[in-house]
UniProtKB/TrEMBL annotation:
All copies of domain Photolyase/cryptochrome alpha/beta, residue ranges: 1-120
Family: Belongs to the DNA photolyase family.
Gene source species: Rhodococcus tibetensis
Cofactor: FAD
Keyword Flavoprotein: yes
Keyword Lyase carried by entry: no
InterPro entries recorded: Crypto/Photolyase_FAD-like_sf, Crypto/Photolyase_N_sf, Cryptochr/Photolyase_FAD-bd, Cryptochrome/DNA_photolyase_1, DNA_photolyase_1_CS_C, DNA_photolyase_N, Rossmann-like_a/b/a_fold
SUPFAM superfamilies registered for this protein in UniProt: Cryptochrome/photolyase FAD-binding domain, Cryptochrome/photolyase, N-terminal domain
Protein name, per record: DNA photolyase family protein
Domain of life, per lineage: Bacteria
Keyword field: Chromophore, FAD, Flavoprotein
Length: 445
């Protein structure tokens, strides 16, 4: 018997529940990846490149035996199954809106056996006593801890007997070359970075994680996104460590599961407000809106921390979480633009772009989501900068025009603006009042 293992966003071999199932059945296996143009088109360059690198790493681990095809999974997956006489296809469950639709279409022609998911606790598992989903993080988190997860399982390349794809009569595709340099991908890179973080940064994570100047976070988001590592492996390692760092990190991993759960319960929240009452909020559009949006995208708003964040995004395809919140708040509350406009730009530019985390990170900031930051909380980009980048080094790193200004003065720019650096595109005090007025109209509804 040959088992077909269809990889999607689980590009690793260790702790891969799918492989465990296949190994237990004693089957020989064929590994398959489908380059799906709909997903590739939506991904943006950095994510596509990371995916291609991950695929090459996986193919190496399989001794060049990964079958890669390109096209519509609903046609190709059943065709490959038939070509190798596999009666069913093994996957890890995908809970995203597109993944669910795609899998339903594939399952019309061939049985899908889902073992495990990309989460410690899969969406739909943690519910209130009456079976209703949680809408607020803290009670979800308590229940998530109580629910628990199983220990990582020992799988790996040697667990199953991988067959050569050469004899399979389908048209093979090559893994495309990445277009640019970027983060190193694959399972061994994920483990290397994780070990490095555990050794050097975990202990100070709780204190330092809000400081973009210290670069003290794990940068594991992209490895989690593509399943180069499973969060259970990380949770096992964290459970062996004491202290506030491990606790704080575990909580962040729970946010990831929480947002996946919310998106699973409410797939429509990927495109619109989770809290529909905000559909009525007044938003700006037209030529002026396009102009300030362009300034935001390009990091020339004249607000140093905002510009630094947007330039980090352009340079690294990644941005520090605190700065993501600051630039998102600026787009929504200072520029009065729809959160989904910024979210779309992020999804296109971020290497770790993830629909659940991104759309709900944005909605948290906009105050339209579950568990939102209260609508009247408007981040002040100057004081946020002074607080979280206290000596200004993050700003100076990313905004060369400001390198001549020492210390925290770089945030307020009360002094003369250096040549080439723009005047602020808005008056924060006025726009704050405007945002409060617009949100106030909704509150009064
Ligand atoms: P660490 O601080 O080391 O966190 C460890 C892991 O916990 C992360 O890798 C991530 O998987 C998870 N995590 C941490 N914070 C959050 C959070 N707030 N929500 C959900 N999971 C979290 N994260 C993404 O993975 N993809 C996105 O597209 C994304 N878009 C965001 C957009 C906005 C507006 C905001 C405010 C946040 C967004 N986040 C997103 C969450 C967070 O910013 C990133 O997960 C984090 O910055 C990644 O860096 P890290 O791995 O070094 O984080």
């Amino acid at each position: 018997d040959t088992a077909l293992v269809w990889f999607r966003r689980d590009l690793r071999l260790a702790d891969l529940p799918t492989l465990h199932t296949v190994a237990e059945a004693g089957a020989r296996a064929l590994g398959l990846f489908v380059l799906d143009d709909r997903l590739l088109g939506a991904a943006g360059g950095p994510r596509r490149d990371f995916l291609f690198r991950s695929l090459s790493a996986l193919d190496d681990q399989l001794g060049g035996r990964l079958l890669v095809v390109r096209g519509n999974p609903a046609e190709l997956v059943p065709a490959v199954a038939e070509a190798v006489s596999a009666g069913e296809v093994h996957v890890s469950a995908d809970f995203g809106p597109y993944g669910r639709e795609r899998d339903a279409a594939v399952a019309e022609d061939i049985g899908l056996v889902a073992t495990g998911s990309p989460y410690a606790v899969a969406p739909g598992r943690v519910t209130k006593g009456d079976g209703e989903p949680y809408r607020v993080f803290t009670p979800y988190f308590r229940q998530w801890i109580d629910h628990g997860w199983r220990a990582p399982i020992d799988t790996g390349a040697a667990t199953v007997d991988w067959i050569e794809p050469d004899d399979v009569t389908v048209r093979r595709a090559v893994i495309p070359e990445p277009e640019s340099e970027g983060v190193a991908a694959g399972e061994s890179e994920a483990l290397r970075r994780w070990t490095e973080f555990l050794e050097n940064e975990l202990d100070s994570y709780d204190d330092a994680r809000n400081r973009p100047d210290l670069d003290a976070t794990s940068r594991m988001s992209v490895y989690l996104k593509y399943g180069n590592i499973h969060p259970r492996t990380m949770l096992r390692d964290l459970s062996r460590r004491r202290g506030k760092g491990a606790e704080a990190y575990r909580r962040q991993l729970a946010w990831r599961d929480f947002y996946a759960d919310i998106l699973f319960q409410r797939p429509d929240s990927a495109r619109g407000n989770y809290d529909r009452k905000f559909d009525a909020i007044r938003l700006d559009s037209g030529a002026d809106a396009d102009e300030v949006f362009a300034a935001w995208c390009e990091g020339r708003t004249g607000f140093p921390i905002v510009d630094a964040g947007m330039r980090q995004l352009r340079a690294e395809a990644w941005m520090h979480n605190r700065v993501r919140m600051i630039v998102a708040s600026f787009l929504v509350k200072d520029l009065h633009l729809p959160w989904w406009r910024g979210a779309r730009f992020f999804m296109n530019r971020l290497v770790d772009g993830d629909l659940a985390n991104n759309q709900h990170g944005w909605q948290w900031t906009a105050g339209t989501g579950t568990d939102p930051s209260p609508y009247f909380r408007v981040f002040n980009p100057i004081t946020q900068g002074e607080k979280f980048d206290p000596d200004g080094s993050y700003v100076r790193k990313w905004v060369p025009e400001l390198r001549g200004i020492p210390g925290r003065a770089v945030h307020s720019l009360k002094a003369l603006r250096p040549e080439g650096y723009p005047e602020p595109i808005v008056d924060h005090g006025l726009e704050r009042q405007e945002a409060l007025a617009r949100y106030g109209e909704i509150k009064a509804l």
